[in-house]
Design brief:
Blueprint (H helix, E strand, L loop, with lengths): L3 E5 L4 H12 L3 E10 L15 H7 L4 E6 L4 H13 L6 E3 L6 H14 L2 E3 L7 H11 L2 E7 L15 H14 L10 E7 L5 E12 L4 E12 L7
Parallel strand pairs: 1-2, 1-4, 2-3, 4-5
Antiparallel strand pairs: 6-7, 6-9, 8-9
Helix pairs in contact: 3-4
């Protein structure tokens, strides 16, 4: 019997790579789920460009479902997630991109336990820098779209993560003490292309918004373009 999952997706590196894991396992990904907050601070879900997750999902050939989060707070976030999943009878598990955040994982686990389905975090407890290097060497094209950490300046917004910028990121994380994976909100990312993308995301129009200590690379227009897709291995 096919194992059926829904994958939480922001369009960022961790959720995208976790979704790839599900696909590579041969699981049936019923759809991706994106929770878009209407406020710019939320405890569990990424904000910058989260509405582009639909493009990310289409790029991988998976349907996306989006939920709007009207109010902030842990209870409201979990309520939205539980309400959505409780209406589903065809789901065996939920895939998330948690790496080391006990806050995220324990709450996802709690929701899944109450619903009698599996909570799956393929990246859990992996070394952050090794994981980032693995993503880059695998061919994921990752750009930084949000910053909120001392040591990361405006010049990082829109920057592509390659092995050279990764070394700089590691040095800065050691110097200023932020999480090099960005899981705590230090920075947010968007995956615009990857070997498992059937199409790539092209950014047409954007705006850099900087307030002196944090900012976002706000993508106003983007589209999917064809590429030479080789299939998922």
């Amino acid at each position: 019997m096919t194992f059926r999952v829904i994958s939480l997706l922001t369009g960022g590196k961790d959720s995208v790579y976790s979704l790839y894991y599900a696909i590579s396992q041969g699981w049936e990904v019923l759809e991706t789920l994106t929770i878009c907050p209407k406020v710019d601070e939320t405890l569990m879900y990424h904000y910058p460009n989260a509405r582009l997750a639909e493009l990310s999902s289409k790029a991988m050939g998976v349907r996306n479902y989006r939920l709007e989060l009207d109010k902030q707070g842990e209870d409201k976030e979990l309520e939205v997630l539980f309400s959505y999943l409780s209406d589903r009878r065809d789901v065996d598990g939920i895939v998330t991109g948690a790496i080391k955040s006990e806050y995220q994982r324990t709450r996802f686990d709690r929701v899944c336990e109450e619903l009698g389905i599996r909570s799956i975090s393929p990246l859990w407890r992996k070394d952050e820098m090794a994981l980032l290097r693995e993503m880059i060497e695998f061919g994921m094209e990752i750009i930084i779209v949000g910053i909120s950490a001392e040591g990361l300046g405006k010049e990082w917004l829109g920057r592509k993560l390659d092995l050279n910028s990764l070394r700089n990121l590691e040095r800065l994380s050691e110097e200023f003490g932020f999480n090099p994976s960005g899981e705590g909100g230090e920075f947010e990312t968007l995956v615009v292309d990857a070997p498992f993308y059937r199409m790539k995301i092209d950014i047409i129009d954007y705006e850099v918004i900087w307030n002196g200590y944090s900012g976002i690379y706000l993508i106003r227009r983007a589209k999917l373009t064809r590429k030479n897709y080789q299939g998922v291995s």
